[in-house]
Amino acid sequence: MKIITKFSCLLVAGLFFLASCGGPDVSNLQDALDDLDENLENLDLDEALDDVVEEDVSTDAYISEDGSFSINFPGAPTVESQNVATDVGDIEMVTFMYEKSTTEFYMVAYSDYPSALIEMSNTEDLLNGAKGGVLDSQPGIIIKEEKDVELDGNPGMTFKASTDSYYFSYEIYMVSNRLYQIAILRDGSYPSEEAYESFIKTFKLTE
């Protein structure tokens, strides 16, 4: 499986688990990941890039007005939207992804959840569910470190984890009914502290 496909599977898994409320349907999750893998393998990247509206981020922070955030991408990210089937219906996931090299990817994603789901859930459980989805999406994932964090008073979580060859630094935040996922994925070694500070730690809410 290509590294970009693995990255997208992590995103979908985090989204799926958060929406499952009380435990995932593993068969449905695997079906969703298999469908995503097939779609990404068949994707014409050149054609997709033609449809993407990009912003110049060479000197200033990348700003997403619809996403209500800014962040310092190393270069102009591609932007895609897809509907992910969950236990509470289809949820749109918007992703912003930049490929620095064939072994290093930078990503931001956000999804909005039904207000009823948020009201009936505990924020800590929602964050743990999203993290669990990421960690359970690939076999053999091992956590190196994790801790609770906040962003402008909004609860979040940061963690580092790896498989036998893929390593990633990850942050997730719940802002009202919106889940943000920010991450760097590398093949062969963990993202550097410099990459973490210059990308993930520059993520800011604009509203």
The CATH architecture assignment turns out to be: 3-Layer(aba) Sandwich
The gyration radius over C-alpha positions equals 16 Å
Count of β-strands: 10
Question: Into which percentage range does the β-strand content fall?
Answer: 35-45%
Which blocks of ≥5 consecutive residues have pLDDT under 50?
20-29, 45-59
Whole-number mean pLDDT = 78
Shape type: globular
CATH superfamily grouping: Mog1/PsbP, alpha/beta/alpha sandwich
Distance between the termini: 37 Å
Strand order of the largest sheet: 3-4-5-9-8-7-6
- Going by helix content, strand content and strand pairing, the class is alpha+beta
What is the count of distinct domains? 1
The CATH class designation is Alpha Beta
CATH fold-level name: Protein Transport Mog1p, Chain A
Helicity, in percent?
Answer: 25-40%
**Total number of helical segments?**
6
Provide the succession of SSEs.
Answer: HHHEEEEEHHEEEEHE
Fold and architecture overview:
The protein has helices at 3-18, 26-41, 45-50, 115-119, 123-136, 193-198; strands at residues 62-64, 69-71, 78-86, 89-101, 104-112, 142-151, 154-162, 166-175, 178-187, 204-205. It has a 7-stranded antiparallel sheet, covered by helices on one side. Strands 1-2-10 form a 3-stranded antiparallel sheet, with no helix packed on it. α1 (3-18) packs antiparallel against α2 and α1 runs antiparallel to α5 (123-136). The chain is an alpha+beta fold. The model is unreliable at 20-29 and 45-59 (pLDDT under 50). A hairpin with a 3-residue loop joins β7 and β8. 32% of the residues are buried. The chain has one domain: Mog1/PsbP, alpha/beta/alpha sandwich (Protein Transport Mog1p, Chain A). The chain is built from 6 helices and 10 strands; from the N terminus they run αααβββββααββββαβ. It is globular and about 40 Å long.
